């Protein structure tokens, strides 16, 4: 009966719920006393309302003490929104299965007395009541949360108490032939007919966007990139925030954090929030991520909301026209001159003095085939094939590499100068089940890591930022055009797509195509010793 001492009747006839905050919790909660006006109701009604308030206060006190059943030492994993939707579904189930009020008055009175006894028991026994915990575990399991933490069980137990007291109060209204009220704001929209519908959160919206079928064939590298971006954006906007309530101010605030955030900050310091990392970097003068990277995050948000609008999940795109920082124009990539090619092949690590590995062969192969960096780096020993008497690079997709376009899948004759330089001998020295360039293996994302390493070495030799590895592809195309190789055959060798479906190579039979390509490719020269 101790809880009833929290119920007081004022001189004006109104009931008040009052409880003193324990002295050790006053600094945490920020109050000395908690009180609620219950209005001008009967004593029975006041007791029921006081029971609801007692549950809330006990939960507040227990949370302030850090109390939780010793079920698990794990921290809370469920959000307030997830707890709310689970317990709202529980109340909906109670309301749906409620039996009609008895016809006889004495049966109604007996049921009322049982109801009041149950309500008093639930509100006074506390969250350690085994029956409450059993129900809470079932509600969690029904929601798919079987590996919940002790904190989650504690929070769900408090929510179940609130749902039961709400149900008992409504049942009292039904038994006394009153209009059924709504007493706890948590359950205002829930009854026997209206099941709770979880609002679409930021987290849920991002998951729907990623699961959309139009993104099913996204390349693994691209998927990893936007998975990471959306994890960052989810944290900045708040995973449980309703997506429909995200404003332009929220988008700008997220962008402003990104503009201060160093690259890979959370990977280096995973125990801090992005906001903390951004503020620390700003105070210490740590350079932020590049403007281009920050812009990609803003564009990812806009793409998300454009999709949500198209799917009629939100009414507007709050990220529309919000820009990232100004991005410097990248210099146009250009072809290498003959002198630049000589300098390249005579500079470390491309000169082969430290060994003829991927640094040695990739620039030479790219120059004489027009192949892309990733196409060459991920070549396997089994990708060097002989067909129709012609040695070729078989550029096909496999687990270590996807191709950029459909036309990228092709057989590329190996240029005679590459053969004379001993390329087939290098291939013969490698494991038959492995890559042609095993010295490039190691990083999780081999192609990305080695592409950056290649870029650093080229920049050490050529300060001109317009000279990049991809420029060798342009250099090959220019040389092929100077050799007057038909445009269709250049496209066939380099994997460029043609708008027209007709091509000159269609006039060649299959058994003659590779010899023709090899003959044409042999006329490509650069005037340098490789």
Give a written overview of the molecule:
The chain is mainly alpha-helical and 530 residues long. It has three domains: 2-187, no CATH class; 202-310, no CATH class; 338-521, hpI Integrase, Chain A, CATH 1.10.443. It is built from 21 helices and six strands. Strands 1-2-3 form a three-stranded antiparallel sheet, with helices on one face. Helix 5 packs across helix 6, helix 7 runs antiparallel to helix 8 and helix 14 runs parallel beside helix 19 (471-482). 30% of the residues are buried.
Please give the number of β-strands: 6
Large-scale geometry: elongated
Main sheet properties: 3 strands, antiparallel
Strand content: 5-15%
Give me the side-by-side strand order of the main sheet: 1-2-3
Q: How far is the first residue's CA from the last residue's CA? A: 95 Å
What gyration radius follows from the Cα positions, in whole Å? 35 Å
In terms of structural class, how would the helical and strand content be classed?
mainly alpha
- Mean pLDDT score, rounded? 82
Residue stretches low in confidence (pLDDT < 50, at least 5 long) are 67-76, 500-511
- How many structural domains can be distinguished in the coordinates? 3
Q: What is the tally of helical segments?
A: 21
Elements, N to C (H/E)? EEHEHHHHHHHHHHHHHHEEEHHHHHH
Q: Give the proportion of residues in helices.
A: 40-55%
């Amino acid at each position: 009966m101790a809880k009833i001492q929290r119920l007081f009747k004022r001189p004006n006839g109104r009931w008040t719920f009052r409880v003193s905050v324990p002295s050790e919790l006053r600094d945490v909660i920020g109050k000395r006393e908690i009180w609620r006006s219950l209005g001008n109701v009967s004593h029975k009604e006041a007791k029921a309302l006081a029971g609801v308030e007692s549950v809330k206060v006990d939960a507040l006190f227990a949370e302030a003490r850090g109390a939780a059943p010793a079920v698990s030492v794990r921290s809370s994993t469920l959000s307030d929104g997830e707890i709310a939707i689970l317990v709202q579904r529980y109340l909906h189930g109670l309301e749906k299965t409620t039996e009609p009020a008895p016809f006889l008055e004495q049966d109604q009175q007996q049921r009322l007395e049982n109801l009041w006894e149950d309500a008093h028991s639930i509100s006074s026994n506390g969250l350690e009541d085994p029956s409450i915990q059993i129900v809470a575990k079932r509600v969690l399991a029904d929601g798919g949360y079987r590996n919940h933490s002790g904190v989650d069980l504690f929070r769900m137990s408090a929510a179940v108490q609130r749902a039961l007291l709400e149900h008992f109060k409504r049942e009292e209204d039904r038994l006394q032939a009153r209009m059924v009220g709504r007493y706890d704001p948590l359950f205002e929209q829930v009854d026997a007919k209206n099941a709770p519908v979880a609002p679409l959160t930021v987290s849920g919206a991002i998951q729907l966007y990623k699961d959309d079928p139009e993104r099913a064939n996204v390349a693994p590298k691209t998927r990893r990139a936007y998975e990471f971006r959306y994890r960052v954006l989810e944290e900045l906007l708040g995973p449980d925030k309703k997506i429909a309530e995200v404003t332009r101010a929220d988008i700008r605030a997220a962008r402003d954090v990104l503009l201060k955030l160093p690259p890979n900050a959370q990977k280096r310091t995973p125990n801090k929030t992005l906001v903390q990392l951004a503020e620390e970097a700003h105070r210490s003068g740590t350079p932020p991520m590049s403007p281009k990277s920050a812009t990609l995050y803003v564009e990812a948000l806009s793409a998300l909301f454009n999709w949500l609008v198209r799917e009629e999940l939100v009414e507007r795109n709050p990220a529309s026209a919000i820009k990232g920082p100004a991005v410097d124009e990248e210099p146009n990539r250009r072809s290498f001159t003959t002198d630049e090619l000589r300098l390249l092949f005579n500079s470390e690590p491309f000169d082969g003095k430290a060994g003829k590995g991927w640094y040695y062969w990739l620039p030479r192969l790219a120059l004489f085939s027009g192949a892309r960096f990733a196409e060459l780096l991920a070549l396997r020993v089994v990708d060097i094939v002989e067909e129709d008497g012609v040695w070729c690079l078989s550029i096909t997709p496999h687990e270590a590499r996807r191709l950029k376009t459909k036309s990228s899948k092709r057989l590329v004759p190996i240029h005679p100068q590459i053969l004379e330089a001993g390329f087939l001998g290098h291939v013969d020295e490698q494991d038959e089940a492995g890559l042609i360039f095993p010295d490039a293996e190691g990083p999780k994302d081999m192609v990305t890591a080695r592409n950056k390493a290649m870029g650093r070495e080229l920049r050490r030799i050529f300060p001109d930022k317009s000279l990049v590895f991809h420029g060798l592809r342009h250099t090959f195309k220019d040389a092929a055009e100077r050799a007057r190789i038909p445009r269709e055959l250049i496209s066939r060798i380099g994997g460029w797509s043609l708008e027209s479906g007709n091509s000159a190579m269609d006039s060649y039979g299959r058994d003659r195509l590779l010899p023709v390509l090899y003959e044409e490719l042999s006329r490509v020269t650069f005037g340098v010793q490789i």
